[in-house]
Amino acid sequence: MQIKWVDDLLAIAECKNFSRAAEIRCVTQSALSRRIRSLEDWVGVELVDRGTYPIQLTLAGQTFCEQGREALSSLLELRSSLRQEERMPGRSIQVTAGHSLSMTFLPKWLARFQQHNEPFNARVVAANIHDAVIALAEGNCDLMIVYHHPKAPILLDHEKFVSLTLGQDSFIPLCAPNRRGEPLHRLPGKAGKPVPHLAYTATTFLGRVADIVIKDSHVPCVLTRCYEADMAMLLMRMAMEGYGVAWLPESAVAEELQHGRLVRAGGSEWSTQLEIRSYCSRANQNPTMLELWKTLEKASQNLAAQG
């Protein structure tokens, strides 16, 4: 039996809907259904009455939820206590950040933050958004820092997690320049001459946002996918070599833009804004994290006032 199966059942008990519960648990509906079946196989009885609408738990399911919630809470408290002993020395937090942000925004943000606040040690793990959400949900990090876009939201339970906006970033289409400094590939492309697209793999957050930008444009975009990768930095390198157009966070390519190694492949209609957000669990009891979050709240309020 896996602990996450208990959380799955608790989500269904709360939402009374497989689809919504799957969103909260950051899995597909089919994956959630398989996990509930696995839990029922382990328990030996049906826990969910699938013949009702909205979905209801069976009596066995209700009993399992009540006692499972208490058992899960005790296990998580024990884990938190044991992990506290394994933390970095002194004041410390564990941060999970998106790949691009871990290499661009996060180092500068930490340096700037610690100049004006009491210093702390940080252990940083770079991850895709799916793995970052799982790390936060399962208590494997104190703080998650990732991109957010209103049309590709991260669906976390607001009763369990809280978020703040730390900054903004532009998401823009870029390519290598020709000898005259003009775009080697220019959007939107033509039917007989499609623009080579350096795309993100289907499961990535930035890939979803790029697809949204392309779909929402009032001008049809003619692209041909010639390369795929799950990290912006890989696509940036391919774009610099002239292979095609890649949508990239501006903060990740600031130096390349400044020196003319990359240029915009289209106007502002092909760009969008990303929020840089921090997330933490409301149940987090790390004193360093609690102090940090209070400071982040003030900084976020100031950012909103400036905007």
What is the gist of this entry?
Helix content is 44%, strand content 22%. The termini are far apart. It has 307 residues and is an alpha/beta fold.
How many β-strand stretches?
Answer: 11
Arithmetic mean pLDDT = 88
Largest sheet geometry: 7 strands, mixed
CATH architecture of the largest domain: 3-Layer(aba) Sandwich
C-alpha-based Rg, rounded: 22 Å
- Helix residue percentage: 40-55%
The low-confidence parts are none
What coarse outline follows from CA principal-axis ratios? globular
Number of domains: 3
Ends distance: 48 Å
| Structural class label | alpha/beta
SSE topology string: HHHEEHEHHEHEEEHEHEHEEH
The CATH C-level name of the largest domain is Alpha Beta
Strand share of the residues?
Answer: 15-25%
CATH fold title of the largest domain? D-Maltodextrin-Binding Protein, domain 2
The number of helices is: 11
Could you characterize the architecture of this molecule?
It contains 11 helices and 11 strands. With 307 residues, it is α/β, with parallel strands linked by helices. The chain has 3 domains: 3-85, Arc Repressor Mutant, subunit A (Orthogonal Bundle), CATH 1.10.10; 88-166 and 275-306, D-Maltodextrin-Binding Protein, domain 2 (3-Layer(aba) Sandwich), CATH 3.40.190; 169-273, 3-Layer(aba) Sandwich (D-Maltodextrin-Binding Protein, domain 2). Strands 3, 4, 5, 6, 9, 10 and 11 form a 7-stranded mixed β-sheet that branches. Strands 1-2 form a two-stranded antiparallel sheet. Strands 7-8 form a two-stranded parallel sheet. A hairpin with a 6-residue loop joins strand 1 (48-49) and strand 2 (56-57). It is globular.
